[in-house]
Amino acid sequence: MQKFILRVNGETKEVESHSDSPLLWVLRDHLDLVGTKYGCGIAQCGACTVHLDGKAVRSCQVPVSAIGDSKIKTIEGLSKDATHVLQEAWREHDVPQCGYCQAGQIMSAASLLETNKRPSDEEIDTAMAGNICRCGTYLRIKAAIKTASSNL
Amino acid sequence: MTELRRRSFLKISGLTAGGFFIGFNFTGCKSSVDVKAMPTEWTDINAFLQIGDTGIVTIFSPNPEIGQNIKTSMPMLVAEELDVAWKDVMVKQAPLDLVKYTRQVAGGSQSIRQGWESLRTAGATARQMLVNAAAKSWGVDPSLCSTNEGIVSGPDNKTIGYGELAKLAAQEPVPTDVKLKEVKDFKIISKDTKNVDIEGIITGKSLFGIDTKREGMRYASVLRPPSFGQELIAYDDTEAKAIVGVERIEKFGNKIAIIATDTWSAMKGQKALKATWTEGNFESTTFHDEKMAESLSKKGETKREDGDTAKAMKLADRIIEKTYEAPFLPHSCLEPMNFFAHVTEEKADLYGPIQTPDWTRSRVAELLEMEKEKVFIGMSRMGGGFGRRLYGDFALEAAEVSKITGLPIQLVFSREDDMTAGTYRPASKYKFRAAIKDGQMTAYELDGVIMNNGNSTREQNFPACCVENYKVTSSNVESNITTGAWRAPIANFLACAEQSFIDEVAEAVDKDPVAFRLELLERAKTNPVGDLEYDPDKMIGVIKLAAEKSGWGTKVGNVHQGFSVYYSHNSYVAEVAEVAMETGSPVVKKVYCAVDCGIVVNPIAALNQVEGGIIDGIGHAMYSEFKFENGRTTRTNFDKYRMIKMSEAPEVETHFVQSENDPTGLGEPTLPPAGGAVANALYQATRQRHYRQPFIQDISLLG
User: Fold this and answer.
1) Choosing a second label site near B289 at 20 to 30 A (CA), which of A9, B55, B140, B487?
2) B92-116: burial string, b at 16+ Cβ within 10 Å, e else
3) Residue of chain A whose alpha carbon sits nearest to that of B192
4) Residue contact B611–A136, C-beta within 8 A
5) What is the pTM of this model?
């Protein structure tokens, strides 16, 4: 085990973990940030999506040793009081069913809206292609992203 | 835990709230909604509800939440009859207690249907006790009092809140003959009511089993036999033990548990274990196909027989015979299987995602040779269930590993574990034969065969009663691959096969698919052949509604429609899929859906279930291919197994039949018709019939 200093949601945290441990498990097991979910471990489902320096990444594929000074943002740090435009839209559309994939969906969508405030349907599809929802809430996710976009 | 939550509410109720209190208006913080203060004292009225001294009510939701939104809709039923404002309701997951609650199961789309009376009665009983207490304090007859939004009103404009009355009400005798509201008086039921856990979900709070943390807890990963049928011979754990964080390695039964300080170490440990397993010639998809084909060539057990199909076949002008097939499927709950267990000499504490807490409790008690009263199972929110979490194998494993180690254990499956150690939707094949005589279907035969799952058919369902000569048989092929319920068991593929076949017959007799179905149902309605176990009128109702709303038969150009209708989980659903050709490939653009599920308890959530069921149904019918080779699947993760994506999800337009009938199932019934509607629309677009799922196998061949 090795010590790492991480910058997570505006705070500096020291953790001790395997150097090859994916950020996902460091967040969940070591930092108690369980909002970031494990789904597949191979970047195919998007449940573990977080932002690294503002960009959406699959935290199951980022070894903790590769993070350095990069800023990590998780669902817990997306907004101070749960008022991110996407969180508001998720409430309005009552998006979730089981809810497990939703944090990853929101983090992917947030990254999209950072760079593209008015994404087209196709751009939303492309940005969200790596996020699976077995419950099939895709229509509401898309509708919520559009609502959020129009409120930006 | 409960106390903590209450305190945290007190502290933050003016700004934001935890995931459970509905009263706060989250959208915009400009609310003038009357937000009641958090109570300092609570009174238990009955097992379903507590009333706080400020009028806030806690309602306990008895059944496990897998995404069917039962944690919102069940408390709505209690709140309706209690006659309390929904904004003053807090919802909590009830503990497992079959004395207080009945049927604490998530399965068969039965939670609302079976809780409809009992939940409303719990609310109405409490309301009557509050009324009786108020009447007594005023010295008036209870019949002179009324309630509205948590306030009892009596003669001379007297009013008193539930909060003030709670203690007195709890001392009132429990009435046994309460009257329930009429549908027209509903204030909460049939109103859009948002998910009570939404705050926790969108802010990443600990809600799911996999999020569990307990003092001293260790993480366990389990190495299971790679192939179904293999036995463990020996293992070498030298390398696994050398991994920092791995604390213990324990063999139990045919499996090996790796116990570690964190999930990653446990998973690394599993990979580093070297195990030898018995060799053999284990089951493959080819073997399954051969066995099922062999079984189909003989008739199975007769499940229903009307008239004489053999005779009708002999007299027919023409016989249509088609066989449809579908593979085993994993459940692919996004939250992999996991469970927490802490077993001591005195008791066993378990917690996690489970659809059948009571059955699992019995099995854990048996496994541990412990009295059932000493086994406790708490229910977490579940990251999907779809039937996989009916089978508590993962909870039993957690209990066993905890017993061996004496440690509190959080047992976690990797995705690979989840896909390779499943209780799969069984593979099945359906052979249909129809006799055509003078432009009519005079006989209908179905022979079903399924892997390891009992009856492969729903023999009493449509088109039973519609055809003079009707015969359904079923056979089962034994397998050592574990199988089980998968969202809308049997119906999930049988409906697709049957509705595809009905379209083929319609075409053979040169009839419009909708008109043909209606004609068949007319027979069931007016002069049914044999026992009738479904309601032809309701089926006709949804067919007509779907046809009307979809503009059936009026679409021109690049819009190709396919029809499907199915009755399952006590609900009737008709769907019209629309496919367009885009750069030479068929694309599912839209699905119209008509549903008769009785009273719609929570429209906003019901629509979500309908859309989800359809998208899930299309996804698995179109894309999800699963195979076995030598006893194991090669589809071990989502890179090798395809789930439907956002871009592939069609628009869904839903129409509920207006109804005052008691509610029926909704978590499952919109899935079965989806595959058939798409298959029939694909045929209209491409002139190619689809006989095997997933359709993508043959669509690719087209390209």
Assistant:
1) B487
2) bbbbbeeeebebbbbbbbbbbbebb
3) A94
4) yes
5) 0.95
